């Protein structure tokens, strides 16, 4: 049975390319073996800066200054209202997200 490879390197065994993703091309057993070997290669972990960027992107902050500004505003509001840290963490999704992000960034910096 012929082997087909999609543009994203997914492979399929099918009698024809009909019904397969657009751009599929037929490949040989040797090309399939090479693709499967490449999939076994270890993927380098992201750098510290990439991990920091991912955390900031997840919470919608453009940079660390933006994160700290948002944190300072929430923290001053929490103190003004006399709310405990634990209660703010439980009740306020934004407070929890920023707190978790600051903790994760501190862990990355400590490595």
Key terms:
5 helices; 2 domains; mainly alpha; 8% strand; three-stranded antiparallel β-sheet; 111 residues
Mean pLDDT: 85
Rg, please?
24 Å
Query: Which structural class best describes the helix and strand composition?
Result: mainly alpha
Helix proportion:
55-70%
Largest sheet: 3 strands, antiparallel
What's the N-to-C terminus distance?
50 Å
**What is the N-to-C order of secondary-structure elements (H for helix, E for strand)?**
EEEHHHHH
Based on DSSP secondary structure assignment, what is the total number of beta strands?
3
Shape: elongated
SS summary, helix count: 5
The low-pLDDT segments are none
Strand arrangement, major sheet:
2-1-3
- Give the percentage of residues in beta strands: 5-15%
Number of domains: 2
Describe the structure.
A hairpin with a 5-residue loop joins strand 1 (3-5) and strand 2. The chain is mainly alpha-helical. The chain is 59% helix and 8% strand. 6% of the residues are buried. The mean pLDDT is 85. The chain has two domains: 3-39, no CATH class; 48-110, no CATH class. The chain is elongated and about 70 Å long. Strands 2-1-3 form a three-stranded antiparallel sheet.
